[in-house]
Design goal:
This protein is 38% helix and 19% strand. The chain has 207 residues and is an alpha/beta fold.
């Protein structure tokens, strides 16, 4: 699958490397293609570094992992995203991590859908750190990856990509459920920095 990565920091870089290793064609979008970080990513198998616009337009699914304050501007530079699958990995947190930057009457994912009209937005890859994205296995069990969205086919792509990484994907419902998943990410962050460390994850268990 042709995947575009917008925001190639810890999360976007990790996801892009993993998907390239799995055989997907990955285009990292960067305004600084000659930077050492981009050069390292370009050396990955099945990976290339291009402009953000080209990464978005060539992608069947776009992974959005920009810092929240830069997200609206980043989307404006990607052109028409109508019909594109956009996998939103962003958490709209206050800079000091004391809470959410948005009221609970909306979510970052819903804002992304407004800023990219016509895109098929799925919230996913936002409830664990990049270390767990690199390896979701905890002994014989896999970390749960919740996702939500309003387009069934786009959610199917998100589910399959998460499963390929080794996650246990769980459909959390419509895109408005991002109002729950984004604060859930803040719980992970608070536990991680509160003494549990970053190698933690949640798992949904059934009986």
């Amino acid at each position: 699958m042709n995947l575009g990565i917008i925001g190639a920091g810890s999360v976007g870089g990790t996801l892009g490397r993993r998907f390239a290793q799995l055989g997907h064609s990955v285009a990292f979008g960067s305004r600084r293609p000659d930077s050492p970080e981009m050069a390292e990513l370009a050396r990955q198998p099945n990976a290339r570094v291009v402009s953000p616009y080209e990464a978005a337009q060539s992608a069947e699914a776009l992974i959005l992992a920009t810092p929240w304050p830069n997200t609206a501007e980043a989307l404006r530079g990607l052109g028409n995203l109508t019909g594109k699958i956009v996998l939103d990995c962003i958490n709209p947190l206050k800079p000091d991590l004391s809470g959410m930057a948005l009221a609970n009457t909306t979510s970052g994912a819903e804002q992304v859908a407004e800023w990219a009209p016509g895109a098929r937005v799925v919230k996913i890859f936002n409830t664990v750190g990049f270390g767990v994205m690199a390896n979701p296995a905890f002994g014989s069990e896999s970390a749960t990856m919740f996702y939500c969205g309003d387009d069934g086919a786009a959610k199917g792509v998100a589910r399959d990509l998460a499963a390929q990484l080794g996650f246990d994907p769980v459909d959390a419902g419509p895109l408005a459920r991002a109002r729950l998943l984004e604060p859930f990410a803040l719980l992970w962050i608070s536990l991680a920095i509160g003494g549990h460390g970053r190698e933690i994850a949640f798992r949904l268990m059934h009986r």
